[in-house]
Request: fold
Amino acid sequence: MKGKTAIVLAMLIATPVFAQTTPAMMKAIVIHSFGGPEVLQYEDAPRPEPKEDEILIRVMAAGVNPVDAAIRAGHMSRFLGDRFPLIPGMDVAGVVEKTGAKITKFKKGDLVYAYLSFKEQGGYAEFAIAREDEMALKPKAITFDGAAAVPLAATTAWQALIDTAKIEKGQTVLIHGGSGGVGHFAIQIAKARGAKVIATASTPNQDLLKELGADQAIDYTTTKFEDVVKNVDVVLDAVRGDTLARSYGVVKKGGIIVSITGQPDQAELDKHDIRGSSLMAHPDSKVLEELAKLIEAKKVKPVVSQVLPLAEAAKAHEQIATLHTRGKIVLKVADAPK
Reply:
């Protein structure tokens, strides 16, 4: 027996032991079920690992968008499904931590900002995954907090005005919701293209519209825009309610309405001999590169009304729910590297 015991012990000693490796963890905001802001839980989550065509970003700041709140509440479940646990967030700014084998445009240590895909998300976390076509080098002229405010909202404004409406120098553009996330970028992008800009906002935001370059600021709480606006080339509707329905009559023949909140009525478009388009933005690294140029040239600047710690994401969503956020809210995830 002693001999057999010795043999067994020898075999155990000689056999390598493969210990289970504990996955690296990170702090993140995680959703385990749809609901109100209270479902945004600050907790430990597995740190993602980039595939060969992906990049791992150490997040310094994450932008908050109205679509994040819609996803959290379950309004987008028909597109996303019930995929839990879910880390929300599509805007990030940070530092490249690791790159997959097929990555050629970026390297570890690069300062970047990204518009993460609607399908993947993951921005409200210490680390996030992005693809090369979703990110660009961060503009040097702004902080990580400022950069995190840019991607989704500014890309939406760009794709609405430049890619869809194809605005030209000398045209007149009416922007509804000019003080909001998309609207405040739209004013600046339109001005950079040489357009005349008319923008609407509430009383407290009239000064902001002018600071951003609007040629005509309209207080929608005291003035009906259709009473003072006519023959515009482009309308960008970035608000809800009856604004879209009231906009058809202010567009000149051959003009266009681009809505990011609903589908234009084809019968009304035909009646006024104008075009219309509903837009859902998508990540585009080339757009982020163009936006970076405008930011570096001081032609576009993000307006960040509030910076909150990552753990207070629920507070950010409560503010988003008011529908009166000035510019953007940003979640601070980490201090910028020195």
Observations:
- Residues 15-19 have pLDDT under 50 and may be disordered.
- The first strand starts at residue 25 and ends at 30.
